Amino acid sequence: MKMGFLGNGKLARVLGAAFQRAGHEVRFGARDPSSPSATTDHPAIEAGAKVCAIDNAAAFGDVVVLAINPWTEIEGVLRSFRHRLEGKVLVDPSNDIDFSSRPVLASSERSLGQRVQQWAPSARVVKTLNFIPTNLMVDPTAQGIVPAMMWVAGDDANAKRVTSDLLRDLGWSEVIDLGGIERSRFQESIGLIVSRVVTDLLRAAH
Ligand SMILES: NC(=O)c1ccc[n+]([C@@H]2O[C@H](COP(=O)([O-])OP(=O)(O)OC[C@H]3O[C@@H](n4cnc5c(N)ncnc54)[C@H](OP(=O)(O)O)[C@@H]3O)[C@@H](O)[C@H]2O)c1
Question: Is the dihedral of CA 144, 186, 173, 1 positive or negative?
């Protein structure tokens, strides 16, 4: 399958390398694809993936992965490139956590997944993977996650099937369909709990 990443940071590199290993064709969308840092420490590039402009990565992918950080930049990026996302599966692993003091969800109203769907209305958004660190996203059983169970939420049944197959390629043997995109908030709340635990552990260690 052709996969495009919006972003070329940590999550894109780890997930992209795993998808490339699984036999998918991967393009990473970077703001400055000609910069040396866009291709260094990038295992997927060594395996044949390419870095290109964000516009090209969005156009390339049948499945597009949202890999933008901070979350406050997501709306602008989606509004700029949403014309490239029509009908495409848009995998959303993002979190809207405010880390300025103890982590909290930045919006108390709608889930970020719902807002992503609103900002890219012609895409078929599927929320998943947002609540675990990138190194655990790939090859979960080797990382000790048993059972390897992951959740998806989204309004399009076929997009969730495509995403579930991709998750199985990463080693998630059981994929649970939580329902519509509004159920993203459940996964985002788990992401908040994980962030708080990690933050508290790091503070306790210092
Ligand atoms: N890292 C994790 O363990 C983890 C776990 C779960 C979920 N996530 C989610 O995954 C997403 C990506 O996280 P990450 O760790 O990969 O972040 P990251 O390493 O900081 O990478 C962020 C990427 O976003 C790009 N970016 C930022 N603002 C942009 C803009 N205005 N236009 C275009 N590109 C822009 C950056 O481009 P430049 O390189 O040009 O700055 C970079 O490629 C986030 O939503 C995060 O919540 C991450």
Answer: negative
Task: Give the up-direction half-sphere exposure of residue 6: CA atoms within 13 A in the CB hemisphere.
Answer: 31
CA–centroid distance for 122 within its chain = 18
How close is the Cα of 67 to the center of ligand 1, in Å?
A: 5
Any idea what DSSP says for residue 66?
Answer: E
Q: What is the pLDDT of residues 93-109, one digit of tens each?
A: 999 999 988 899 998 78
Residues 6+ apart with CB under 8 A from 99: 195, 199
Query: Would you state the pLDDT for residue 203?
Result: 87
- Determine if ligand 1 sits within 6 Å of the CB of residue 4: no
Distance 49 CA to ligand 1 centre (A): 18
Could you give the dihedral angle defined by the CA atoms of residues 190, 101, 95 and 141, in that order, rounded to the nearest 10 degrees? -50
